[in-house]
Amino acid sequence: MKLRRLLLACALATLHAPAWADTNVKLGVLTDLSGPYADLSGKGSVIATQMAVEEFQKLHPDFKIEVISSDHQNKPDIGSSVVRKWFDQDGVDAVVDVASSGVAMAVGQLAKDGNKVFLASGPASSDITNKACSPNTIQWTYDTYALSKSTASALVQSGGNKWFFITTDYVFGHAMERDTSRFVEAAGGKVVGRARVPINTPDFSSFLLQARSSGANVVGLANAGADTINAVKQAAEFGLTKGGIRLAGLLVDITDVHGLGLPASQGLVITQAFYWDLNDSTRAFSKRFAERAEGKMPGQVHAGAYSATLHYLKALAAGAPKTDGKAVVAKMEELPTEDEAFGRGSVRKDGRKLHDMYLFEVKKPAESSGGWDLYKRLATVPADQVFRPLAESECALAR
Question: Phi/psi class of residue 100: alpha, beta or left (left: φ > 0; alpha: ψ in -120 to 50)?
Answer without folding.
Answer: beta
